[in-house]
Amino acid sequence: MPAYNAAAFVFDLCIGIGVALVVYALLRGSLRKLLDRVIDVPEGTKFYLRALVLILLSVALNKVIVGVHLKPDAHFMEYVWAVASDMSGMFENLFVVLLVYQGLITVLVVVLKPKNAK
Amino acid sequence: MRNDQFLIASYLVTGLLCLGLAVAAYLCLRRPVEQIFSALPRQDWGKVLKKAFPASTILLALSGLLSVSYYGCPKRNYNSIVSDHAYIISVNRQQIAATLSSIVVAVFVWAVIVFVNLWSIRREQAKEATNRN
């Protein structure tokens, strides 16, 4: 079943990019508001938002690219397990990266302090 | 296509793809980074950072590409590598993945550098405000 390798790769790719973009879309609005209040230079907000989307996409693609590579005689469910294993690794990496990014933003907010903070 | 030609062509295509990824990451962040560094109180320092940004981002990404070995584990010899196209493609995938990991590291490092510089801009502004009062 060599076609399954390609199908699994495309499925992996779509899920990976989709999850990364959904996470970014969820965070973008509130993160932009927070950064606008904290950072004096307007380009600073743009930098941190672009950095976030770059990091999320790179981490998602990193796992997907290496991803599914089974022998032609593998069964359908083996492809499903391979994709599931990829997803698991990708979610784990996204979690770690988000944790590090949030840590960085927390330090940034604590040190720079929002403009109207009391 | 002969085995040797396949190996060279795949190496070249993957190299160009990885270089493209690194340049894309640099171009994505270039404008905000340059404007932040232009706002620094010390212009000479801003200039150094502006020049270091593309160099470090692209070099780190390429170091990810070059860090992947074809010999693998357990160690293969050249003939077994060159005759196995599936293995070559899997190494190419690992090279792209290593490049993406390096891009993540580079972006995080630059996010910290930008943060320190934003802090310095804030301190300079606070100092100016104190002097005015």
Question: Any overview of this molecule?
Answer:
The complex is a heterodimer of chains A (118) and B (133). Chain A has helices at 2-38, 42-66, 76-112. Chain A has 118 residues and is mainly α. Chain A has one domain. In chain A, helix 1 (2-38) packs antiparallel against helix 2 and helix 1 packs parallel to helix 3. The N and C termini of chain A lie far apart (64 Å). The mean pLDDT of chain A is 86. Chain B has 133 residues and is mostly helical. Chain B has one domain (3-127). Chain B has helices at residues 3-38, 43-66, 78-83, 85-132. The longest helix of chain B is centred in the last third of the chain and has 48 residues, at 85-132. Chain B is rod-shaped, with a radius of gyration of 21 Å. Chain B starts with a helix and ends with a helix. Chain A binds chain B through residues 39-41, 43-44, 46-48, 50-51, 54-55, 58-59, 61-63, 65-67, 69, 97, 100-101, 104, 107-108, 111-112, and chain B through 25, 28-29, 31-33, 35-36, 39, 86, 90, 93-94, 96-97, 100-101, 103-104, 107-108, 110-112, 114-115, 118-119, 121-122, 125.
